[in-house]
Amino acid sequence: xxxxxxxxxxxxxxxxxxxxxxxxxxxxxxxxxxxxxxxxxxxxxxxxxxxxxxxxxxxxxxxxxxxxxxxxxxxxxxxxxxxxxxxxxxxxxxxxxxxxxxxxxxxxxxxxxxxxxxxxxxxxxxxxxxxxxxxxxxxxxxxxxxxxxxxxxxxxxxxxxxxxxxxxxxxxxxxxxxxxxxxxxxxxxxxxxxxxxxxxxxxxxxxxxxxxxxxxxxxxxxxxxxxxxxxxxxxxxxxxxxxxxxxxxxxxxxxxxxxxxxxxxxxxxxxxxxxxxxxxxxxxxxxxxxxxxxxxxxxxxxxxxxxxxxxxxxxxxxxxxxxxxxxxxxxxxxxxxxxxxxxxxxxxxxxxxxxxxxxxxxxxxxxxxxxxxxxxxxxxxxxxxxxxxxxxxxxxxxxxxxxxxxxxxxxxxxxxxxxxxxxxxxxxxxxxxxxxxxxxxxxxxxxxxxxxxxxxxxxxx
Amino acid sequence: xxxxxxxxxxxxxxxxxxxxxxxxxxxxxxxxxxxxxxxxxxxxxxxxxxxxxxxxxxxxxxxxxxxxxxxxxxxxxxxxxxxxxxxxxxxxxxxxxxxxxxxxxxxxxxxxxxxxxxxxxxxxxxxxxxxxxxxxxxxxxxxxxxxxxxxxxxxxxxxxxxxxxxxxxxxxxxxxxxxxxxxxxxxxxxxxxxxxxxxxxxxxxxxxxxxxxxxxxxxxxxxxxxxxxxxxxxxxxxxxxxxxxxxxxxxxxxxxxxxxxxxxxxxxxxxxxxxxxxxxxxxxxxxxxxxxxxxxxxxxxxxxxxxxxxxxxxxxxxxxxxxxxxxxxxxxxxxxxxxxxxxxxxxxxxxxxxxxxxxxxxxxxxxxxxxxxxxxxxxxxxxxxxxxxxxxxxxxxxxxxxxxxxxxxxxx
Lengths: 461, 412
What we know:
The structure holds two protein chains of two kinds.
Chain A: H1 5-16, H2 20-23, H3 34-38, H4 53-56, E1 66-84, E2 90-92, E3 98-108, E4 113-128, E5 141-156, E6 161-181, E7 186-188, E8 191-192, E9 203-225, E10 230-237, E11 240-253, H5 274-278, E12 291-299, E13 302-312, E14 315-324, E15 331-336, E16 345-348, E17 354-364, E18 370-378, E19 396-406, E20 411-422, E21 425-427, H6 438-441, E22 444-460
Antiparallel strand pairs in A: 1-2, 1-3, 1-22, 3-4, 4-5, 5-6, 6-9, 7-8, 9-10, 9-11, 10-13, 11-12, 12-15, 13-14, 14-17, 15-16, 17-18, 18-19, 19-20, 20-22, 21-22
Chain B: H1 2-21, H2 28-31, E1 45-49, H3 51-54, H4 63-66, H5 70-78, H6 148-154, H7 159-165, E2 170-174, H8 181-186, H9 203-220, E3 225-229, E4 240-242, H10 243-248, H11 250-260, E5 265-266, E6 276-278, H12 279-287, E7 294-295, E8 313-314, H13 316-340, E9 343-345, H14 348-357, H15 386-404
Parallel strand pairs in B: 1-2, 2-3, 3-9, 5-7
Antiparallel strand pairs in B: 4-6, 6-8
């Protein structure tokens, strides 16, 4: 038996139909700098003096005189689960702890100019589920890692006000592993395997997609001191549009263990192994041989405005509002470069712009030590119909705690921990059509929770 | 000092805010799956069986008939999910629409099988019953009884495997009818080449297969509860009519002649006979000219060679044999139900009562194209109608309630 040509297209499409990779972006955790993390990310108006403002507010860099260097990493552990309406079974995530680095250098001359360089990860996610997770046909594993490199220049306009900007060079890698569902495959021009009785979510292949891309943007900011107690700042990070034009797709056959009964509609002998029927698709000129695919993932723009109050002795209170332009992530094109080219399409995401509020408090002690706490809340970008295995996104809150421990006069270590709270959200494990509503496609409940530990070593000279 | 205290208060306030956020309340019950109204034991109900459980009626099956299955009706009363392998209209095969013309649902242009509906595609089925299945089938991927519906419904698995996919908490099992049905309808209880396959399973074979089914099912679903249903007595079917009744009624004989399209002679050996004649099959054979246009209620009538008088005839000895076999099956099923803590339902009390009352008619109404076998039996003369499925469900419900202390309500 050979698979119908149309089925080969549909098969490849189903395997590579990555709604997925793009969704990962929405999980921007903002774990950039241990100080910023422990202050609830409310650092645009009242920046941390550690160089991380190259990201958080490029215009605030002249605040720090001399050389500042900061390097560190955040360990991110995300856990979650999905409980099926159908079986009541709970499936846990299987996500390894992610280590996300950050590096910042800044130098202000004796004049009004500060020069710097930032290397940071504004968007990234690894989601991974177990072998028996029914949503593995959307995503068994999805990993998106995007590194931004930003040279920065800032200028002190007046004693209180400064501006800054820097080009952003982004490099993004994406990896997606997902199952292929035999029931959606055409067994003949007239019928899918599902119509012949093969159960939905019968995994017969596993696809791995890997690709990388570069993109460019800009990050600008302004910072000012209104009076001795109040500061204000604002920043804007532009959209970066990543085009993964040379992604690789590979396929591995998965054993279904199914055998056909006598008098089956495929007119094959009783006891015929379905796996044997499909084996030819994974070699030679089969549909499930390595091929190329293109996709596009928009990394959205960010804007943030913040205020800082330092009227209390040795204490700064800061409050920020942040906006992320997720609405730009409306569709996701999938352009096949192999035999499935005719089946290229655009997948619906329909994300919404999001807002978050952020509050942080820092109390400084003599000798350079500091204690910080923060809270933040962020609305979900994904609409109710796009809560998926790749990103079961939900409204979330953060609680943070951290501090600075001075090792020497010029060297100190910052540490911060954060816990991510969510309320849980109904979601789906299957793809949906444009006409299907969340009520029609959502088939279970997701929960998510996470912890972040961030450590940074800071050198000030 | 005052400043320090003030700062501590501020820090504490923020800390309290964090603590408030940290109230990680489990809200799963607000948005997750809910317990069925019938009780937690019905969280996942699966139905194993054959054509009756699958919803086969009038020699066909489609989404409309599948919705009338007693199993689906039970699930509704339980308030639990019940996914069945919906078969597109007009069916697979399409049911009979008119017994006089032989017209099928969907008309002459209807395909022999309209396949599964895309919308019914699911990984978890609750009704895994397959028309034609015998006692050996639920635990086997392929047997002599396998047919296209085996694949359409099970997709390469066994009924038990599909049932266990649903992680069942409650199961109904109604299997075994097909081990005796064809023998009963053909009147050939001993396998005879060219005539009939006879009774499929001996008592020992039945027990081995049934035990294997139950062992696999309960072994894969610890704590499973459920109901086992006995095999129906073939003699209660409206397809089978007493020879004496046919001989005594000129109206019936006229009906036979009209239905067969040729004059049908009722031989004298039918007078007073309690032999049961499979009227629909006999008429079909006369029309097809594979059987002479006569009714003989036994072998050996002068000038009438075998198998006339044997085929389509269930004589009193055969009735006793068949009844004994079925009773033996049912005794074992009841014992198995008792052993594993399941409820047991014997459908024969209901069917016998309806046969006695005439609601299952003693002779088909050949003048009616759409109610030939009464309101309780569909147009193939064998499978229960939607009305009968309601009666069956309403007889099973109190047994479940009595066994498990549940409060399932009867179907109104």
